[in-house]
Amino acid sequence: MAAALRRALSAAVAVALLAAPSASADSWLYEKFTTDGHVRADYNAQGQQVTSLILDRQSGGAFYSRQKYLYGVFSIQMKLIHGNSAGTVTSFYLTSGDGPGHDEIDLFIRSFRRHADLPYPGGKPMSVHATLWDGSFWATRQGEVKVDWAAAPFVVSYRGYSADACTPDGEGRPLRCPTGTDRWMSRQLDAAEWGTVAWARKNYMHYNYCEDGWRFPQGFPAECSRN
């Protein structure tokens, strides 16, 4: 009887251990973000939490942070759509909103220097966004290249999100900053990091708005000649 009870308890513990990751797989996502559309949270074979955005004919997907930030370091790993992804747009960025004059920082392969005579993100708190949507009208010259819906659903996966950043208090002042802010507040890219940026541009950058004359027939934005 005692042996049978031990076997039953061992089996119950094993089941509980196997079930635990699935039960808590969405905690990282839903604790820090609000979701919209097709979003899935799961664990991969290595036991790492993965959040996926899914695009089909009915809807895309997005998640955006509950917290807003003013300054900081943000990081995430993304696995992009395999194969032909023409017309789909996925991103990871900071934005203060959608209206005219909003601030936005797209977190890819670029270091933007501040110039006194050029627009630059100011004191508007921004939230972290990740999106996947049918952007063929925007991305392929008013839909010149259509999304291949036969290949749907399209999936982009994210893991390893971290934010080491200052958050606004009340109306944006004062700031609440993590300990050791000086390690990144005035940091500049070193030679090796500039080399990584150049490598990424050469091998992975397929679009640069500073080369898109179709989008800017009256001339490129002023920063294009500076950076």
TrEMBL record:
It is found in: Secreted, Cell wall; Secreted, Extracellular space, Apoplast. It comes from the Eukaryota. It is an enzyme of class 2 (transferase). InterPro entries: Beta-glucanase-like, Beta-glucanase/XTH, ConA-like_dom_sf, XET_C, XTH. Contains at least one intrachain disulfide bond essential for its enzymatic activity. The keyword Secreted applies. The keyword Acyltransferase does not apply. Its main location: secreted. Belongs to the glycosyl hydrolase 16 family. This is Xyloglucan endotransglucosylase/hydrolase. The lineage of its organism: Eukaryota, Viridiplantae, Streptophyta, Embryophyta, Tracheophyta.
